[in-house]
Amino acid sequence: MKYIDEFRDGKLARGLAQAIRAEAKPERRYNFMEFCGGHTHAISRYGIEGLLPPNLLMIHGPGCPVCVLPIGRVDSAIDLALHRDVTLCTYGDVMRVPASGQMSLMKAKARGADVRMVYSTLDALRIARDEPGREVVFFAIGFETTTPPTAVAIKQAHAQGLANFSVFCNHVLTPAAIANILESPEVRKLGTVPLDGFVGPAHVSTVIGSQPYEFFAEEYQKPVVIAGFEPLDVMQAILMLVRQVNEGRAEVENEFSRAVTPEGNEKAKALVAEVFELRRSFEWRGLGEVPYSALRIKEAYRAFDAEIRFDLGYHAVADAKGCECGAILRGVKRPEDCKLFGTVCTPENPIGSCMVSSEGACAAHYTYGRFDDRAARKAG
Amino acid sequence: MGGTVKPGYVRGLDLKRGHIDLSHGSGGRAMAQLIEQMFVRAFDNEWLRQGNDSACLPAPTGRIVMATDSHVVSPLFFPGGDIGCLSVHGTINDVAMSGARPLYLCASFILEEGFPLGDLQRIVDSMAHAAREAGVPIVTGDTKVVEQGKGDGVFITTTGLGVVPEDVRVAGDRARPGDAIVLSGPIGDHGVAIMSLRENLSFTTSISSDTAALHGLVAAILQVAPGIHCLRDPTRGGVATTLNEIATQSGVGMVLRESAIPVRSEVAAACELLGLDPLYVANEGKLVCICPAEDAVAVLSAMHAHPLGQGAAIIGEVVEDARCFVQMETGFGGRRMVDWLSGEQLPRIC
């Protein structure tokens, strides 16, 4: 595959691995967080951890859209589909997220709820057009990457006067989550999560640009390297982070320059700003309530806001007992530290959300990394 | 009195405009006509012609193998095949993977009221062609009709009987450390061909399903290596799932080399686009063979000499591992697990 194979070249990988080993100083530790689940998946799938020196540790961050979705929000979606006679459309991975009472949207579907998996917001719009007698709700989740398509759907529904379409908006923001991690006691005071730098998200940054990360580099003195999702991208970013740490720099560097600009995608940003506004606070699974970290639908488009149309209240629900998803999402614990990991919590029967998506830290480790707990020993 | 009874006039099946209705499953004349004009005509053989509810067959000597497979594929027609030939190939392959020579098939149809007779004929003709090509007759069967909305056009269940040659011992629990893992050709063709037609995933691809009967290939490799340990066709769940099944049954581990696993570039590209791993995508005309290392080259050569094994490759080996893990050396130089498939393979969301 042209333009893909080039970024998965084993020979180049070995060269980069050699450079990382040569430049990482043996007397110090390097702890980097890859924020985004796409990177977590790439690191596990290509066996990148096995190519890194023992004193360099990758910490899996909270950038996995379904992992940070709090139980209360999934409960509301299930309630809509099961008890409010609504056709609920959503992206595939959301179907399996565990909610209260051992329910999930997939189980609700098996009990007769009308839940449909879509690949695009426009599929949900089409369903609303084709079935005017049904209330169709798009259960919108995800970071800055999936927000513009939701904005497009709302604007189109508005333009077409689609009265039976609405959006249950759960879009969240990357910079707010990074700030929350850097402000957390574990990172700031206790030092239980020593963070020396971030691998910044690829696709999110194509939308928001590299500028929003300048604050972290400057204020918190943490280097950030924005990287693509191919394994060589990740290796290159790790090498760039090692160099910044060695040279005492804390800058925003852009490894993914083939797609990311400092300003990002102005058109997409304008679209999002037209349709959405900041929520004062939003609960994240693992991080708790995070101020100004999520979006809601603006007054002008409130007719398409499912939270208003169906008068959805919000009830926070605690994680299942023993589930360490919260600590894992903050980088405090690793999947194999959780007692439930691989015992009662498996991809077939996820207890916590990190076991659901292939981008979740637990699912990635269970699926790809379980054969070798070297990574766990390094953390200890 | 004494006059001759005129045979009742029976209008032929209207294959252009006709549809299945409930009377075709009622046991009456309409059903008899469907069986006669559709199934017996197409599958024609001495057992079906007898018109009994069962087929009375000569008893073969040796160990008998029996396998059954239900087919519910959607869409019914796809590039490279249809539910008809698929239902013949699927069961022949299940029988063949025990090292057996398939002898007979039976076929059971669940038809939905309203299904076009013309489409049914296409499916039945395709089954007949596949069975004839494979040399395995469909000797008995059954037809049921369900009301509209209670089925999805056509479901076909086929059952096969075969006999295992005396010196052959093929089973999923016989893989041993040191054995070679041989794959008969590029993976993922069937799954990608089907997915390209599914619901809202409309993308165009030149990929056709690989659906094929593999008993000829099995006979060819058993001839050069009768001591083959395991054979399996990696259908649903793909090669990854098949190898995990065998590893668990045999109590062994496996190590694959990603760079050795054949995948067509079109399939790799489609999987990339959909967020799928070709190792988990279904095949309908491929087999995995686990054999003693010393037989590997002979098996590979025999596969290469057969039309259905042109793209065969040795993709890894069986190792000792009490955890029964299937691992893979990635083309990138790292190592990872190749786990069981969990749930459906759902595309990533961002």
Task: Give an overview of the whole structure.
The complex is a heterodimer of chains A (380) and B (350). Chain A has helices spanning 10-23, 37-45, 71-83, 105-110, 121-130, 147-160, 174-183, 185-190, 203-208, 214-219, 231-246, 266-275, 306-309, 325-329, 361-369, 374-379, and strands at 30-36, 56-63, 86-90, 115-117, 135-142, 165-171, 197-200, 224-226, 252-254, 276-278, 281-284, 288-291, 295-297. Chain A is an alpha/beta fold and 380 residues long. In chain A, the strands form four sheets. In chain A, strands 2-1-7-8-9 form a five-stranded parallel sheet, with helices on both faces. In chain A, strands 4-3-5-6 form a four-stranded parallel sheet, sandwiched between helices. In chain A, helix 1 runs parallel beside helix 11 (231-246), helix 5 runs parallel beside helix 6 and helix 6 (147-160) packs across helix 12. The longest helix of chain A is centred in the middle third of the chain and has 16 residues, at 231-246. Chain A is globular. Chain A starts with 9 loop residues before the first helix and ends with a helix. The relative contact order of chain A is 0.16. Chain B is an alpha+beta fold and 350 residues long. Chain B has two domains: 22-164, 60s Ribosomal Protein L30, Chain: A, CATH 3.30.1330.10; 180-337, PurM-like C-terminal domain (Phosphoribosyl-aminoimidazole Synthetase, Chain A, domain 2), CATH 3.90.650.10. Helices cover 29% and strands 21% of the residues of chain B. Chain B has nine helices and 13 strands. In chain B, the strands form three sheets. Chain B has a seven-stranded mixed sheet with strand order 8-10-7-11-9-12-13. The N and C termini of chain B lie far apart (83 Å). The model of chain B is unreliable at 346-350 (pLDDT under 50).
